[in-house]
Amino acid sequence: MSGHGKDQPIIIIHKHAEHDEEHGGAWKVAYADFVTAMMALFIVLWLLSSSESVKKAVGGYFLDPTGKGKQVGSSNVGAGEVARLNRNDMHQLKDKLEQAMKQTPAFEKMEKQVRITQGAEGLRIDLLETQRGVFFLTGSPSPTKEGVELVQMLASELKKLPHKVAIEGHSDSAPFGEGEYSNWELSSDRANAARRILSANGISDDRFSQVRGFADRRLLLKNEPMNPTNRRISIIVRNIGLDEMEEMGREVPLSGAGAAVGEKKEAEGAKKEPEAASHH
Question: Where is this region: Disordered (predicted)?
Fold first, then answer.
C-alpha cells in the first residue's frame, strides 16, 4: 500500500478569484468627466459675470489662438504689448485728427499750439497756451471761442472710437494771485472744462477714465518754469487694455511717468515765447 502511495501524482488546484466590477477603473473615467464638466461650468459662470472687454479677449483667443491678430487673446499682457497692438490704429488716428483740425477755421492761427504725440499711455493731444491765451481766457477756466471749436472737433472724431479718454490740466509756475484759488484749482478746472465740452458733444461719461490737474508739477519746459507754453490741456486717447490692467491691480505707465522721455523731447522742440509770463 505504501508503495502505491508514493507513485500517486500530486495535483495542485489554482483558484482564480473574480473581481467585482466596483473595483475596476471605470469609475476613474466617470470622475474625470465630472470634474471636466464642473470646470466648464465655472468658466461659463465667470464669463457671464465678466466685462465686455474680457469676453472679447476670450473670444479673440479662440478666433485667433496664435495671437497674430489685433484682438488681445489674454489679459496677461504687458503695457508694451498693448501699445504695440494698437500702434497702427493710433498712427492712423493721429493722421485723421490732423486732417480734421486743418478744416477748423481758427486752426491756422493756433496750429503751432497743437501737438499730437504717441506715447506709452496712448495718443496725446496737447493744447498749448501762449502769453495772450489761445484756448482759455487769461487767468480763467473759461474756454475761448477757438478753444471750444477745436475741442468740439476732437469730440466729433473721438466719439467714433471705443478708447477711454483721460484729460490733464497743467499750469506754469507763475503765482496765481492771492487767496485760496491757485494753480491746482486752475489746472483742474480747465481740465474739467474740456471734459464738459467733450461730454456735450457725444463722449459718454463712461469713456472718461481720469480728469487730472497737475498745476506746475509736470512742466513741459523744466528750465523755463514761467514760460506760458507750460500752460496746457492734454487729451489722451488711451490704448485699449490699460483700464482692464488697472482693474486687475497691475501697474500702468501713466503719462507723467511713462511718457517722461517723450515730454522731454517735446520740451526741447518748444519755442520760447518772446514775452515773459506773468498771468495765466
Answer: 253-280
- In angstroms, the CA 85 to CA 64 distance is 14
Question: For cell 474756454, what's the residue?
Answer: 143
pTM over 0.90: no
30 and 143 assigned to the same domain: no
Asked if residues 129 and 183 have their Cβ atoms less than 8 Å apart, the reply is: no
Better-predicted residue by pLDDT, 211 or 54: 211
Q: Apex CA 155: angle with CA 150 and CA 156, to 5°?
A: 100
Q: CA 204 → CA 112, 150, 161, 162, distances in Å?
A: 29, 18, 11, 11
Q: Which pLDDT belongs to residue 76? A: 41
Q: CA-CA distance, 193 to 215, in Å (whole number)?
A: 15
For residue 68, tell me if it sits in a domain.
no
Tracing cell 486732417 back to the chain, one arrives at: 99
Phi/psi at 125 (nearest 5 deg)?
A: -115, 110
- CA–CA separation, 240 vs 174, rounded Å? 37
- Domain enclosing residue 34, as ranges: 25-63
pLDDT at residue 151, rounded to an integer: 92
- Tens of pLDDT, residue by residue over 126-136, are 999 887 778 99
Same-domain check for residues 139 and 173:
yes
pLDDT tens-digit series, residues 123-181: 899 999 887 778 998 888 999 998 898 899 899 888 888 889 999 999 998 887 667 88
259 vs 240: CA distance, rounded Å = 17
- Ordered DSSP codes for 69-135: SSS---S---HHHHHHHHHHHHHHHHHHHHHHHHTSTTHHHHGGGEEEEE-SSEEEEEEE--TT-SS
